[in-house]
Each structure stands twice: as C-alpha cells, then as structure tokens.
Amino acid sequence: MVKFFRCCKARVSPELLSKKNEKPEAFLPSLRMILFIFRMFYAWPDEQSLAPNALWWYRAKGVLFRTFFIYLSAAAQLAYNFTVTSREELFAGMFVLLTQLVLILKMEFFYKNVSKIQQLIRRLNGKRYQQSGNAEEDMPLVSARKKSTIFWTLYFMFSVGLATEWLVISLSLTTLIVPVWPVVDHTTPYWVYLMVIFHQYVAIALNASFNISWDSLVAALFALTNAHLHRLQIQLMKLGHRKHLHPPKDAKRRMIAVSSFDDNARSVPTKSDADEVYNELLQCIIFHQEVTGFLREVLDLFSGPLLAQLYCSVFILCITEFRLLTDVNTMADTVQAVIYLLCLVIQVAQYCYFGNEINYMAQKVHRATAFVNYPDMNIKCRKLLIAFQQITAVGIKCSAKYVFTIQLSMETFVTILKTSYSYLAVLRSMTD
C-alpha cells in the first residue's frame, strides 16, 4: 500500500505544495502579534537576509535581553526561597519560581529550535494551504483564526491585567510585586524601591507576553491543522459530484431517451471525466498526507515542552487553589488568585481543545470518504479510494510523546483539573 501511494504521489503537480517568498504575517494574520513579541525578544531572526555578523549580534542581544529580565528574576526568586522561614512565604516563592522555570525551559527550547519553527510557519504558505476563493472551504480557516485570536486575547488580557493590578497594589502599599532577595522594605531608599518594582513589573509583563505567545503559537498551529482537515472533509464530500452540482446550461433542453435495460450498456464515465475524478481524489490524498505530516512534525517538535507544561500545570493549579483557600484574606487577593487561576485554565484548555478538535475532525474525514460518488468511479479510482479509506480509518491521535504520552483532548483537561484537586485535598490534610 505504501508503494502504491508513492506511485500516486509522483504524479502530483509540483505546483501543489509550492511556496512563495512572503512573510508569515501576509498569509497568517492570526500570528501577527505573536511574531511581534518574538521579535521584541530577539527570538525571530531572518536568517536569509541577515549577514553572519548581524545574525550573531542579533542572537547576542537576545541573550542579554533574557538574562536581564528573565534569568535575573529567577535567580533572585531562588535565593529568596532559601531565606524564608514560614510556610506561606515558601509557597509564595515556589509558586513564582515554578512558573519562571517552566518559562525558561520553553524560552530556551524556542531559541534553540527557532529555525525549525520558522520552517513550519513557512510551510503553511503552500498553495494548498491558501484560501481557495470558495466561501465554504474558507470558512474553517476564518473560524480557526477567530478561535485562536479569542484564546490569545483572553489569555493576554488576564495576564497583563493581573500584572498591572499587582503593580498598582504594590505602589499603593509600598510592597514588592513578588517577594525576592535581597529584601526591599520600608528602610530601603524610595528610589531603589521604584527601580526594583519597575524591573519586576517589566520582567513579569515580558514573561507573560512570551509565555502567551509560545502557547498561542502551538495552539494556532493546531487550530489551522484542524481547519485544513475540515477543508479536506468538504472536498471529499464534493468528490465525484461536481458534475451533478453544476450541470451544463443546456441540460434542461436535452431529450432523455428511454430504452430497455442492457447489462452491456451501463453508465460508465468518459475517460476525461474518470481522469478528472481520479486526479481530484489523488489531490485529496496528497493534501491529507501533507496535513498529517505537518501535524506530526509540530508534535515531534513541541512534545517535550508541552509535557513539561501539562505536568507542571497540575502542581501550579494545586498551589493556586491552596492559596485561594488558605492565604487569601481580602477581596483584592481573591480577585488576583481567581484571575491567575483563569490564566492557567486558558493555558491548558487551548491545547486540549484544539487537540480534541483534530481528533474529532479526523473521524469526520474518514466518514466523508463514504459520501464520494463511488458508483460512477472506474476500477482504478475505486481501488485508490479503498486504500485511502483504510488509512483514514486509523484516525489521528493528537498527543504529546516524550518518555510519557498525554493525549491532547478535553478528557485530559478534565483529568488535569481532577488531579490538581486531589493534590489539593492531600496538601490541605497535611497542613491542617
């Protein structure tokens, strides 16, 4: 069967998956703000246009940038955790440090694999990935961009809004946004306090922006993969029916001749019609292989950080819920804890939601193969369709695999919430 599909693939026009020299923003508007934030971190170099010296300096600026705003904050937080004496201070410090460590892991992964990520983004510029001009097939792309933009907007709004709220409360109470070492208190000169709190706010805002962009990039790739699978489903539903959907203009004027039934006079499509249906089916198969291959490369590349994020989300959710139930005394503290909890939920939910959509859409693609105009196909086309049905019957399991395997679905999302609640119950029983 593999040999059969290789023979089919060799006959596809080279223009099918050709690429243009365009910027990603030109064909993927949903990534415009995400790539803007990456460029702000000096994490999105244009290796084709930059000279070697300019590329080296670009990367050096990225190292200096994240050292001053990311590593310095994490080092100060780690030193603080060794100086605390109470349980509340330790949980508050671990709460912030765990988030920073996950961000550092994701950031270093991004800097190391930025060339591969850029190749994946450029791959979406192939002709088959572009809008077709058909309103029905373009609707899934529009819907995917809207959904990914909604997730990004909510995530960004809650995260940056929470950081701004922390800044306002800290300035009004003359306290730090997050506890760090060395300790800054009422005995510290006010200008030193302002410098420290300004650095904290900028670092937190930048951390949140990069974290949001990284998560939203993966979610956007999942959303667009699901949209193209939806487009493939629509194309399969029309396969072999185009002649019936768009009959000739003079079809009503033709006379219909009725004759006795004859086994030798069965309705067989002409050679040109059969070749057209065969080529349409072949293009659908190649498009399916391209989309599933793209998804496989995305999962292979991002599986490690995805697994780390999902596992750490369980503990971060547990600590957030614990603080919400035990360490919150005022309405402002309650609002802050709830908003942070919503940010964590959105972060995990977008992975699971779009992964679940891909799993479901893969099943719909398989069911769509049953709606093609099978009776009017010739033997050659029927064999190709049956082979394609055997491949789509397997489905697509959108899962992160790296030592362990976690399927990206809404069932996994519910399991993460349940597990964090179970850890919360154990933690409360140990501290009571």
TrEMBL record:
<feature type="transmembrane region" description="Helical">
    <location>
        <begin position="190"/>
        <end position="210"/>
    </location>
</feature>
<protein>
    <recommendedName>
        <fullName>Odorant receptor</fullName>
    </recommendedName>
</protein>
<keyword id="KW-1003">Cell membrane</keyword>
<keyword id="KW-0812">Transmembrane</keyword>
<feature type="transmembrane region" description="Helical">
    <location>
        <begin position="90"/>
        <end position="111"/>
    </location>
</feature>
<feature type="transmembrane region" description="Helical">
    <location>
        <begin position="63"/>
        <end position="84"/>
    </location>
</feature>
<feature type="transmembrane region" description="Helical">
    <location>
        <begin position="306"/>
        <end position="325"/>
    </location>
</feature>
<feature type="transmembrane region" description="Helical">
    <location>
        <begin position="154"/>
        <end position="178"/>
    </location>
</feature>
<dbReference type="Pfam" id="PF02949">
    <property type="entry name" value="7tm_6"/>
</dbReference>
<keyword id="KW-0807">Transducer</keyword>
<keyword id="KW-0472">Membrane</keyword>
<keyword id="KW-0716">Sensory transduction</keyword>
<keyword id="KW-0675">Receptor</keyword>
<keyword id="KW-1133">Transmembrane helix</keyword>
<feature type="transmembrane region" description="Helical">
    <location>
        <begin position="337"/>
        <end position="354"/>
    </location>
</feature>
<keyword id="KW-0552">Olfaction</keyword>
<dbReference type="InterPro" id="IPR004117">
    <property type="entry name" value="7tm6_olfct_rcpt"/>
</dbReference>
